[in-house]
Amino acid sequence: MADQKISQLTEVTNPNPNDVIPIVNGGETKKITVANLAIAGSSGTSGSNGLSGTSGTSGSNGSSGTSGVDGTSGSSGTSGVNGSSGTSGTSGTSGGTGSSGTSGSSGTSGASLTGTNTFSGTNTFTGQLTINNGVGSGGSSEGGEINLQYASSTTLTGSNVVFDVFSDRVRIFENAGNNRGVYVDLSKSPAGVGGELMSKASGFVNSGTVVTLGDIQVQFSTSGNRSLQIKTLGSNFSATVAGYTAFSSSGNQFQYVAGQSISVTGTMTYLLSTWNFIGDGDVAVYNVRDTTNLRFWRITLMVGPTYANNMITIERLH
Questions:
Q1: Disulfide check for 46: which of 77, 138, 173, 214 has CB 3.0–4.6 Å away?
Q2: CATH fold for domain 199-316
Q3: What digits encode the pLDDT tens for the residues 201-248?
Q4: Within 13 Å and on the Cβ side, how many CA atoms surround 34?
Q5: Three-class SS string for 229-250?
């Protein structure tokens, strides 16, 4: 057979795996089977697809011809290397927690004051205030003492009113001169703070001049029967009056009256309208019970000369 070019050879469209194909390998012409040719070459290059087998010829009347042998699938080339992942951005820094507030400083312990101390303005003492031995020199009998400054219009001597404890007594007195004052002897008082101090108003007054205690006023009348009259500065009330008197007219005499009912209003009314005192030194004591409000007074009168400087005392007993 004359030499022919490969392009002149008859083409085979359904080669068998064992068919041989010429191949140049390393500058030398060699042979390779179709099966080996289907194997992939060097790594990375995909092998060529195997040749599809020829379809089988349909058999007559239903018998199918055998299917042609599938060509061997070429090996998949190696997957390319994935590019490296980009670096993740760093997370933002969380804001720092604010620092805790500073704890308040502990209160300072109360100072102990000695000697002479002056407090000006408004001062508030919370809790118990204890006044120890005062400025007096009473030794073991002298207790706590408070000095209260006089008012500018005082007629008292010295410079202070003293409120103190001396032995069993609570005293109030001026701190100079004759130490005029009053006291309460607590050793003689009832247990359980069961006693009460009376409220009192008094004065040496002329006729028609009132003495006031709370909401009642009393005066010595200026005309008519010369005796005591009463009025209220508050609401009207009913009262029961009892009293006794000693007087010098027609010789020294004594009288008493009980169970007299009166109405006390804003107008002066006689406590006992039948009494009429005409002499210096006549004395009367009235007991007045407010039956509306359950209050009780004792009112004492001593008539002055020519009805001047009459002594009137009102005591609130309940």
A1: 77
A2: Immunoglobulin-like (2.60.40)
A3: 999 999 999 999 999 999 999 999 999 999 999 999 999 999 999 987
A4: 17
A5: EEEECCCCEEEEEEEEEEECCC
